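Apologies for my clumsy wording, but can you show me some protein sequence, whichever is easiest, together with the matching structure tokens, please?
=====
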Amino acid sequence: MQEPGSVRMHAAPVTTRHDPPEPTIGIVANPVSARDIRRIVANAGNLQITDRVNIVLRVLSSAAACGVKRALVMPDRGGIRALLERHFKRPPDGGSVYPAIDFLEMEPTSTVDDTFHATRLLERAGVAAIVVLGGDGTHRAVVRELVERGCRIPIAGLSTGTNNAFPEMREPTITGMAVGLYASGRVAAAQALAPNKLVEVHIADPARGGRRDVAIVDAVVTHDRSVGARALWKTSSLDAAYLAFADPQAIGLSAIGGLLQPVGRRDPGGLAVQMAHDERHALLALDAPIAPGMVRPVPIASWQRMVADEPLAIAASAGTVALDGERELAFEPGQAVRMTLRENAFLTVDVARCMTVAAEQGLLRNTGPRPTLS
């Protein structure tokens, strides 16, 4: 039997799909999120590896306190695994209890492929939920892999990236508690989980077949003919934006739609915004916070609501499509691009709802003897 406060750490075997032996969660922590060019041009800060490790530790300890027995963690070359292993080699302090920690059997490459690979392994292992540390891009990578596999494992996001329109800003302890309450079965799925929208991008190519990808916040068409530095921050290159939701308090390209016509995460439909080529042809100019500390004018030609499952053809004949802030897909003349809003595409743990249910039902009340901490 595992001693209180001790942690088992080794490479994780793959268990039977969707049949974990004990309440188990997955952890995907990107050690290099928030290090793109927007951090330089916007003078924004960056979480150090020690900060990310502390976030993981807070999630693990609070999830364990709410019933999680095992956590499968994505390995990395950026230092998160090394610091976690160093932490757990210390003698137990008597205050924090953690679940058994297993690292996934995979060789890190320090690319987005790590996130894809880890998500596949976590799905195969049958984890109850996946906690994601990163920005919009990291969360999109996890969601894309889950959607492609037809998997409904919920995710719980923690913001550690540059533009964080999707992951909410919240103390990791509370997120860990909510995930633990759901994973241990103390809060039912009907109360704990929330459906989310995404924008599906389809590029039709008569010669090479079609390409598909997804954006969980915004799919933005630019005039750029190459992917380049990926991170998108120059408003002069923007052509159109297709938004799953549009929050006026968000940072990033989705803020353009949020300041025109807000669309909530749970509201039906999305928003499509067409930018003008110059101010002379613009209906209006909008000052939008496209990156931390960076408010820039964006000339707007028009906007309209997106209806679920109704494809919209883009007007541009060539350019790139940026998915959640990063240029991913280039298209040329003759390749038709369509954007389609999909509702109930993936699930997230509704942290606020979980904690409300816990309070209403007294799930965290302990009527037994109170422990004494020395």
Notes: Residues 1-6, 13-18, 34-42 have pLDDT under 50 and may be disordered. The radius of gyration is 22 Å. Residues 15 and 125 are 5 Å apart (CA to CA). DSSP finds nine helices and 17 strands in the chain.
